[in-house]
Amino acid sequence: VVDEARNAAGGFDADLEDRRAIEEEGREDLTDRFIFTIDPPDARDFDDAISITYDEDEDEWELGVHIADVAHFARIDGEIDREAARRGNSVYLPRHVIPMIPEVLSNGVCSLQEGVPRFTKSAFIKLDRKGRVLDTRLSRSIIRSRKRLTYLEAQALIDGSQHDAEEHTSEL
Q1: What pLDDT score was predicted for residue 60?
Q2: CB–CB of 119/141 below 8 Å?
Q3: Which residues are CB-neighbours of 44 under 8 A, at least 6 positions away?
């Protein structure tokens, strides 16, 4: 399982230097968008991220939900797939994690770390000003998370606490 994971992850970052590899994958390039993660301060994996944009002309919001594309690295019925099915989920214990997939994937090429290009599956939801869903779409994508927020930092932004937000999120 570990060997299969190493082989699957091997050369991933180098492949991203060649933009043709992304085009051949048929992925939507979202690396220029402001995408961020929100997790507890002691989070050990970063497997989901979001983006929010506003279109003034249409008076619409678009929420993007971006999930690490683990399936890209795990062949159907391969060793990783079978072991992940056997484990069912990751187990989090105090000061110890038993991951569902090998760490070279879960904490490596499948972790949506700040500033690093990663393959994702993305869902986009268009909303009107009252929050009604206008449209949805799905995409195979590549993102680069711009910021890792904790729940407290995100809440400070939502609450409009300028001092708290600036203290924790200078890039925002």
Answers
A1: 95
A2: yes
A3: 92, 97, 107
For the record, the structure tokens of 82 come out as 């079978």
| Distance from chain centroid for Cα 16 | 16
**CA angle 63-99-45, nearest 5°?**
35
Cβ atoms within 10 Å of 103's Cβ, excluding its own: 15
Beta bridge mates, 55:
60
The amino acid at 127: L
With left for phi above 0 and alpha for psi between -120 and 50, is residue 132 left, alpha or beta?
beta
The answer to whether 2 touches 102, Cβ cutoff 8 Å, is yes
All residues at 6 or more sequence positions from 16 whose CB lies less than 8 Å from its CB, including other chains:
22, 117, 142
Question: Tokens 């690295």, residue?
Answer: 73
- For 131-155, write each residue's pLDDT tens digit: 999 999 999 999 999 999 999 888 8
pLDDT of residue 15: 61
- Which residues on adjacent β-strands are paired with residue 92? 97
In this structure, are strands 133-144 and 117-127 parallel, antiparallel, or unpaired? antiparallel
Q: Which residue has the tokens 């919001």?
A: 61
